[in-house]
Amino acid sequence: MIVTPQHQNAQHQNAQHQNAQHQAPQRTTVGELRKSGHVERPVKQEIRENLLDKLRAGADPTPGILGFEDTVLPQLERALIAGHDVVLLGERGQGKTRLLRTLPLLLDEWTPVIEGSELGEHPYSPITPESMRRAKELGDELPVAWRHRSERYLEKLATPDTSVGDLVGDVDPIKVAEGRSLGDPETIHFGLIPRAHRGILAINELPDLAERIQVALLNVMEERDIQIRGYTLRLPLDVLLVASANPEDYTNRGRIITPLKDRFGAEVRTHYPMDLADEIAVIDQEAVLTAQVPAPLIEILARFTRLLRESNAVDQGSGVSARFAVAGAETVAAAATRRAAILGEEHAVARPIDLDTVLSVLRGKVEFEPGEEGREFAVLEHLLRRATAETARARLSGLDLGPLVSALDLGGQVVTGEEVAAADVLESLPDAESVAAVIERLGARTEGERAAAVELALEGLFLARRIAKEAGDDGQTVYG
Asked: Does residue 201 sit in helix, strand or coil?
């Protein structure tokens, strides 16, 4: 597989992150912990202070998040500093989950817990009956373990079959069978929220939770206790609750009930990338490419995605996910890889001819307005051509393409296609000098890059109605 520079950078950053993980502290009892001067901090205070330290140092608190620097991130940072539970509202594919998964980086790298405790309680503050009994019996000899911040982030996809027991807990029949009474707090099997004690719980697609299940969250968020099977177990839970949701107006699947919305301290709206450069950067960061995809093709896909978001034919309430452009880049790369395998090319390089593969493969990722039934493919094809024309104009602006047009006017033809090798495309050029300026402008060096540059110029001329283009039954496309 060909690894792009972006993926090399991502792998390097991941390796750095793993290497930077320090060993857990060696203190093993609560007595040693007290002697070391360790201070317990509630999770929201911990996040606030670590966030402020990063901001003072000029460090990026949310690495890998693009396009939110001046909009979403300042709002989220203010909410975390205020100690609020947060819900992110936005259409699909706006990076809500990706953003939530950066929050554990604001936790301390290691935190002490009571060894063996079910809820990861702090050694200074046991909250379950068993941990309180052990703390009283063992005193300063209470054993301490260390938990990494990656273990303090729990994530739950809200599905219609989610139960109160999944989130809060339920009576464990096995513990009852062992002889404990039904009202004994130690008969409880804890759910996700108590298990997120001293950490972060993220609930994706919160409106998908049934309303009766959302009601179960009310006490947890405000009073910080849980109610199970008719009795209340008061636990001073220390949890940051964050959630993602589609805007209420845009979803028919459900809604966030009003009392629950009121308990979230902050509601932050996300958005798609506002600038073309951010759209391109998201593709570069997220796409896993099996072949080289030249920058102009990435730009075409980014422009194509943005045009879909502006089109009246597309259901904008559903949105057009950033994953559309990412999947498009991966599809284009796959087409180039397939061609290289069939034709025996040493290096697989995508070309504009490969963009046509995106239309049929990714059509299901776009929701169209009801009146556009039967015209979906035509809409996609039209917008892809617009994106290609805009990119060709932007990339080749100021170049004199007259010599290439003249060469074709004299009877020359350039043949390309999904299964036409880059060398054959270049060989069919009537005059190599006519495209020298294009190749230089686009920085094309290899054979595949030069063929991609030539195809972009030819497609730009065709869309500007300066040359003709004909698709043959054999899968080949002829410019002339």
From this structure: strand
